[in-house]
Amino acid sequence: MPCGLLFGFEIVNRFYRGILRLSCGFSCDTEKVEQVAEEAYSLKESLDKYFMRNQRRMQEAKERAELLGGANGESSHVLRIFDDEARAMQSAHNSSRMLEDAYSTGVAILSKFAEQRESMKGKYDNFGIVREGSSFGDQLDDLMVFVAGVE
């Protein structure tokens, strides 16, 4: 039955019941039973609609999964290549970052050595401690070349 006709039928049905109630004097119990029956029927219809919507959604989800499964099956090789390339890029990025950290640590160490050298050179030159033919600063330079490998 189309929705408009059903709605019209419901209005006529309620009107008819109202007239019967006035003319026949139905008891409250009969009205309550009818009301409960109507509510049960309405709930049953709502539940049926819910189950139909849910079933349709599940079917659509199943179809989407099948379509995506087919698409992934055909292009899985390409996706693996992209995954491998992404991992290689991440590894290169991590290596670059570690090299930058190592470089900055080395620069910090060498700058501290230079500060200590200047400090010690000034202190020991003031005391006159020298090796034959060289100053203490030259000895520290030799030590830095040996330790850091830098001239």
UniProtKB/TrEMBL annotation:
One of its GO terms (molecular function) is SNAP receptor activity. It comes from Chenopodium quinoa (Quinoa). One of its GO terms (biological process) is vesicle fusion. It is a single-pass type IV membrane protein. It is found in: Membrane. It comes from the Eukaryota. This is Uncharacterized protein. GO terms for cellular component: endoplasmic reticulum membrane; ER to Golgi transport vesicle membrane; Golgi apparatus; late endosome membrane; SNARE complex. Keywords: Membrane, Protein transport, Transmembrane, Transmembrane helix, Transport.
